[in-house]
Amino acid sequence: QVQLQESGPGLVKPSQTLSLTCTVSGGSITNSNYAWNWIRQPPGKGLEWMGVIAADGSTDYSPSLKSRTSISRDTSKNQFSLQLRSVTPEDTAVYYCTKQSYRVPVDWGQGTQVTVSS
Q: What is the rounded average pLDDT of the residues 38-48?
């Protein structure tokens, strides 16, 4: 069974870059059957899909976040990462990494709270 674990700072200052890493165990991020997402949930709001990195390393992003978001990977460590630039307090959320199969998240990390505040 695949397990995902998010890691990164819990507090980021406005205008800085939020950086998170997802470590995957029990399966390879290069497995062509799956893709790997970042999803977030702001307080009191619904889930928001941020972007995806496929097994071949190609990426796709939410149009509303595309200008500020980058997803990359380190296949040697079986990790993929999120960078969100120029953050504001509106980027405060619980951030999840997920494994996607047929465009549906099927495995989730436990989530990590990130607060944007000075």
A: 98
